[in-house]
Amino acid sequence: MKSVGVFCGANPGVNPIYQEAAADLGRLMAQQSIQLVFGGGKVGLMGTIADAVLAAGGTAVGVIPQSLVDREVAHKRLTELHVVQTMHERKAMMAARSDAFISMPGGFGTFDEICEIITWNQLGIIKKPVAFFNVNGYWDKFMEMVDHTVTEGFVKFDQRENLIVESNPEVLLQKLRSYADVTSDYWIDFKRI
User: How many domains does the chain have?
Assistant: First the structure.
């Protein structure tokens, strides 16, 4: 597992624990030589995790639509910054550049991004591990909803079981690494999307 796509809020959240967790995860990723692939913003949890990765000597790759660059929210000190035209291009590039995915706390954009990756896994477009960094129980209610979809027959049990939910960043990365070792060498074919 050489690179991880991280989806997270463009806001910091009201509780400082979210920024602390983003910084902890960023430092760990750098220490373990895991490249960060993220939305390219300098604001919110995005900026926090990127700053932490870079401060610890790691690599941070941002992918951001031109419309957000125009709003001056692009992080200017990244290892790489790719400017694309659409959100669809952003997600496709992040998916192609990532070996696994972590969803940190965030809003509708974060929900959209991680749900699309889960769907691509379900459809066989990719086969890459997905984890939820459950800071402060943030994802508990989301997982209750997912469990409800299983109970009601809309999601298969094994698809739910494939989702990693973890509050400890070190354990989270270890679980992703173990999962990624089992599912390595898979592909993404964007013509099928």
Answer: 1
